[in-house]
Amino acid sequence: MSSPLPDHAETVARIGELFRTHGYAGTSLSQITQATGKGKGSLYHFFPGGKQDMAEQVLAQVEGWFSANVFTVLDTAAPDDAIARMFAAVTQWYRAGRRGSLFAAFTQEAATRALFARRIEVFFRRWVVALRNMLRRAGVTGGQATYLAEDTIAAIHGALMLAQGLDTPRLFTRMMDRAQETLYNALPQ
Question: SUPFAM superfamilies from the xrefs (predicted)?
């Protein structure tokens, strides 16, 4: 008995993993059909805009996950809890440094970056603003809150790239612990 074809959300997730691994330009339609178990006709039925439509839906899925698991937490939870939950979610999402960043993959290819620049910018700005606002609610001053938010998100993505470049996932976990500690230490007592 063959395995069932994935539902649409799973199809989008599988395509996302291909884009994350091979980049947008480096992912072929044959790789997509193989990974999803769907023929070209079926793919174009669900993604009438072709590969760009697939990428838009992948980005929307990632944005939805971050909205539910990171941004909303930063917007609503108490500072200590928000920090802990944000780092737990990020560590889960990036599989403790074993999974690359889709946004990093999309920003590395000039043509791809041009296609999705606005979405990438909105995603990162939303994260910076959510983290900055949480820090301000906790009593961190305006400019310092912005710098901490930017530094934290840069640390997350830099640690991810370094951990993957060195094939040392534990480096990601160690850097996440340090970034989390930096935020805790910045909170007024």
Answer: Homeodomain-like, Tetracyclin repressor-like, C-terminal domain
